[in-house]
TrEMBL record:
This is Voltage-gated delayed rectifier potassium channel KCNH4. Belongs to the potassium channel family. H (Eag) (TC 1.A.1.20) subfamily. Kv12.3/KCNH4 sub-subfamily. It is found in: Membrane. The keyword Transmembrane applies. InterPro entries: cNMP-bd_dom (IPR000595), cNMP-bd_dom_sf (IPR018490), Ion_trans_dom (IPR005821), K_chnl_volt-dep_EAG/ELK/ERG (IPR003938), K_chnl_volt-dep_ELK (IPR003950), KCNH_animal-type (IPR050818), PAC (IPR001610), PAS (IPR000014). Its main location: membrane. GO terms for biological process: regulation of membrane potential. Pore-forming (alpha) subunit of a voltage-gated delayed rectifier. Activates at more negative voltages, exhibits fast prepulse-independent activation kinetics and deactivates much more slowly, but shows no inactivation. It catalyses: K(+)(in) = K(+)(out). The lineage of its organism: Eukaryota, Metazoa, Chordata, Craniata, Vertebrata. Residues 525-642 form the Cyclic nucleotide-binding domain. The chain crosses the membrane at residues 186-211, 231-249, 292-314, 326-352, 423-447.
Length: 654
C-alpha cells in the first residue's frame, strides 16, 4: 500500500509520522526526507498540480473530514503522475481525531488510456461516493486502519502477560513468538501434532523392520515351506504401505532451510526431499511382500534384498536430535538400540552354527553349539539336516547368549566350541565392552550435556525470582522483569556475544562484528567510510532488545547512543502525542556535538512490538571519527539526512 500517516494533534500543521515503503517507491523520496513534513503534500506539487484541490485538502484537514480526489503530483525527479487520493481521519476511543491516513493509488496509466475529452467527466465521477475506484481505495484504507487499530489496541491493553506455563510446573525454554503463516491446506507442518504422532508411528514401523528382516533372512531360509515366511505377511505389507504413505506425506511437509526459515512452497519442498531422503525411503518401501500375494516363489535372495529396509534407521539418526531433549526418551532409545544390536548378533550367531553343521561331517563332528543345544533339549540333529530344536527355542538360546556376552555376565550353559564361534564370541565381548564404555558409562554426562543450556535457564530464572522476592518488588515491575528475561533468552539463548568474543584477537573480533552488524553498516551514511573505519565502528556496536510497552528512551534523558531498528515497531511520543512511528531500517538518535556537551532527548521512544535494536555509543563514535578525520566531516554533514527522527533537544525548532 502507498500511504502516509500524519499527526492530527500537531500545534503547527500536521507533520507526517510514518510513510510506507510503497509511498517512497512511488514518489522517489527517502523516508528521512518525508518524515515531519506537512501532510498537505506541498512538497509533491508542480506546474500541473491543481491549487483548488490543494486548498480542499487543507480545508478537509482543518475540519478533520474525509476527502477524495484525483490529483496530479510530481516525483522527486520531476516526473508527473496522477493518483487517487483518499484522506481518512483516525479517531481514538474518546472520539478525537489523532491521525490522518493518506492513501495514494497510481492511476496514471488508466488516465492515459482514457480520452482527453472525458477527463473532466471522469473527475466528476471520481468524486461520487459510488465510484468503483474510490470504493477500492476506501477498502484498502480500511484494511490499513484495521491493522493499525489492532496495533493500537494491543498497545493500550497495558503490560503484555507472560505465558504462565513457563513459570508453573516444569518450565521449558521459551520459544520464538511467531505469527500465523498463510499456507495451503494441503501442506503439512513439520512441527504439527499430527506429524509428531506420524513420526512415532514410522519409528515403531522402522523398529519392526529392523527386527523382522534379519530374523526372516537368518531363520526362515532353511525351511522349504513358505509358512514361516508368510506368518508376518499382513504386518509386512501394512508396514510397506506406511512407508509408501510416508513418502507421499514428505512431499507435502514443510522443512527448515539453512537460513532458519520454514519453507512452505510445494515445489521447493519436493526438490528438497528428492535431493535428500527420497531415494533412501523409496528403496526401503519396495513392496517385496506383494510377491506372496501373486504366489511367486520366494527364495532366500528376496529375504536378503529386504535388508535394504534397514536404511530407514538412517532417518532415526536424523531425528535423534529432536528426541534427545527428553531424558526418558534418550534412555529408551539407548536400551532399544542395545536390544536391537543383541537381536542382530543373535541372528548372526545362529547362521554361524547352521553353517558349521552344513560344512562338517555329521558322523565325526558334533561339537557345535546347536548340537549341544539339541542334546540338552533331547532333540538331536540327524545327519546335520533333520531334527534339532525348534526355531523358537533356537532363537531364544541365540538371544540369551548374545545378551549375556554383551553384558559380560555369561553363565556358560550356551558357549562357543568351534573356532568360528569363539571368534564371534570375542567380537561380541569387545562390542559389549565398547557399548558399556561409550553409552552406559556416559549416560549421566550425555544427559547433563544435553540439558546444560536448559539448566542454566532454570538457574537464572530461580535467581531472578529470588531477587524479586528478597527485594519485594511490585507486581508490575516483577512482570516486566520476567517478560524481558524470558523473551531475551528466546532471542539469544543466554549467549552473551561480547563475553564469548572477548578472548578472540581484535582482527577476528572485527570480522565477526562486521558480519553481525552488517545491516547498520550498510546505511547510506557509512557508504564513504573506509574498511578500517567500518571495522573500528563495528567493535562499538551493541545489540539490545525492547519488549512491547517498554520505553527505550524518556524525554529529558541523556542520549548515550544512536539506535538502528533491526525489527519491530516503535513510536516517538511527546506529551502523549505521536510524533513518529518507526520500523525496520530506521535510524534514531542525534547528530554529534562537542565532547563536553550533554545531549538531552526531546521525546519518549516506546516499543509497540518486540524490537531488536543495534546501537552505537556516541562516545565510541566520536573516538572512531577522531581516528578517521577524512570521514568525520562527511559524517557530520550527512547525519541529519539519515536520521529518521532527531532526538536532540531543540532540533524540532530547526
Amino acid at each position: 500500500s502507498n500511504f502516509i500517516l500524519a499527526n492530527a494533534q500537531g500545534r503547527c500543521g500536521f507533520p507526517i509520522v510514518y510513510c510506507s515503503d510503497g509511498f517512497c517507491d512511488l514518489t522517489g523520496f527517502a523516508r528521512t526526507e518525508i518524515m515531519q513534513k506537512n501532510c498537505s503534500c506541498r512538497f509533491l506539487c508542480g506546474a500541473e498540480t491543481s491549487e483548488p484541490v490543494l486548498q480542499c485538502i487543507e480545508k478537509a484537514l482543518d475540519g478533520r473530514q474525509e476527502y477524495q480526489s484525483e490529483v496530479c503530483f510530481y516525483k522527486k525527479g520531476g516526473t508527473a503522475f496522477w493518483c487517487l487520493l483518499d484522506i481518512m481521519p483516525i479517531k481514538n476511543e474518546k472520539g478525537e481525531v489523532v491521525l490522518f491516513l493518506f492513501s495514494f493509488k497510481d492511476i496514471t496509466e488508466s488516465r492515459g488510456r482514457s480520452h482527453p475529452g472525458d477527463k473532466k467527466e471522469e473527475k466528476q465521477r471520481s468524486k461520487k461516493p459510488g465510484s468503483s475506484q474510490l470504493r477500492a481505495a476506501r477498502r484498502q484504507g480500511r484494511t490499513v486502519l484495521y491493522r493499525l487499530s489492532n496495533q493500537f489496541d494491543r498497545r493500550g491493553r497495558g503490560e503484555v502477560k507472560i505465558n504462565r506455563n513457563v513459570f508453573e510446573g516444569k518450565p521449558s525454554i521459551p520459544e520464538y513468538k511467531v505469527a500465523s503463516v498463510q499456507k495451503s491446506r494441503f501442506i503439512l507442518l513439520h512441527y504439527s501434532i499430527f506429524k509428531a504422532l506420524w513420526d512415532w508411528l514410522i519409528l515403531l514401523a522402522t523398529f519392526y523392520v529392523a527386527i523382522t528382516v534379519p530374523y526372516n533372512v537368518c531363520f526362515t531360509g532353511t525351511e522349504d515351506s513358505l509358512s514361516a515366511a508368510r506368518s508376518t505377511i499382513v504386518s509386512d505389507i501394512a508396514v510397506e504401505m506406511l512407508f509408501i504413505l510416508d513418502i507421499i506425506l514428505n512431499f507435502r511437509t514443510t522443512y527448515v532451510s539453512q537460513s532458519g526459515q520454514v519453507v512452505y512452497d510445494p515445489r521447493s519442498i519436493c526438490l528438497h526431499y528428492v535431493a535428500t531422503w527420497f531415494f533412501v525411503d523409496l528403496i526401503a518401501a519396495l513392496p517385496f511382500d506383494l510377491l506372496y500375494i501373486f504366489n511367486v516363489t520366494v527364495t532366500s535372495l528376496v529375504h536378503l534384498l529386504k535388508t535394504v529396509r534397514l536404511l530407514r534407521l538412517l532417518r532415526l539418526l536424523q531425528k535423534l536430535d529432536r528426541y534427545s531433549q527428553y531424558s526418558a526418551m534418550v534412555l529408551t532409545l539407548l536400551m532399544s538400540m542395545f536390544a536391537l544390536l543383541a537381536h542382530w548378533m543373535a541372528c548372526i550367531w545362529y547362521v554361524i552354527g547352521r553353517k558349521e553343521l552344513e560344512s562338517n561331517d555329521p558322523r565325526t563332528w558334533d561339537i557345535g553349539w546347536l548340537h549341544e543345544l539339541g542334546k540338552r533339549l533331547e532333540a538331536p540333529y540327524i545327519n546335520n539336516s533333520v531334527g534339532g530344536p525348534s526355531i523358537r527355542s533356537t532363537y531364544i538360546a541365540s538371544l540369551y547368549f548374545t545378551l549375556s556376552s554383551l553384558t559380560s555376565v555369561g553363565f556358560g550353559n550356551v558357549c562357543a566350541n568351534t573356532d568360528a564361534e569363539k571368534i564371534f564370541s570375542i567380537c561380541t565381548m569387545l562390542i559389549g565392552a565398547l557399548m558399556h564404555a561409550v553409552v552406559f558409562g556416559n549416560v549421566t554426562a550425555i544427559i547433563q550435556r544435553m540439558y546444560s543450556r536448559r539448566s542454566l535457564y532454570h538457574t537464572r530464572m530461580k535467581d531472578l525470582k529470588d531477587f524479586i522476592r528478597v527485594h519485594r518488588l511490585p507486581q508490575q515491575l516483577k512482570q516486566r522483569m520476567l517478560e524481558y528475561f524470558q523473551t531475551t533468552w528466546s532471542v539469544n539463548n543466554g549467549i552473551d556475544a561480547n563475553e564469548l568474543l572477548h578472548d578472540f584477537p581484535d582482527e577476528l573480533r572485527a570480522d565477526v562484528a562486521m558480519h553481525l552488524n552488517k545491516d547498520i553498516l550498510q546505511l547510506p551514511i557509512f557508504e564513504t567510510a573506509s574498511r578500517g573505519c567500518l571495522r573500528s565502528l563495528s567493535l562499538h556496536i551493541k545489540t539490545s532488545f525492547c519488549a512491547p510497552g517498554e520505553y527505550l528512551l524518556r524525554q529529558g534523558d541523556a542520549l548515550q547512543a544512536n539506535y538502528f531498528v533491526c525489527s519491530g515497531s516503535l513510536e516517538v511520543l511527546k506529551d502523549n502525542v505521536v510524533l513518529a512511528i518507526l520500523g525496520k531500517g530506521d535510524l534514531i538518535g542525534a547528530d554529534l556535538c562537542t565532547m563536553d556537551q550533554v545531549i538531552k532527548t526531546n521525546a519518549d521512544v516506546k516499543a509497540l512490538t518486540y524490537c531488536d535494536l543495534q546501537h552505537i555509543g556516541l562516545q565510541g563514535l566520536s573516538e572512531v571519527l577522531q581516528l578517521y578525520p577524512e570521514y568525520a566531516s562527511k559524517f557530520t554533514a550527512d547525519i541529519h539526512q539519515d536520521l529518521t527522527f532527531n532526538l536532540r533537544e531543540g532540533s524540532e525548532l530547526k
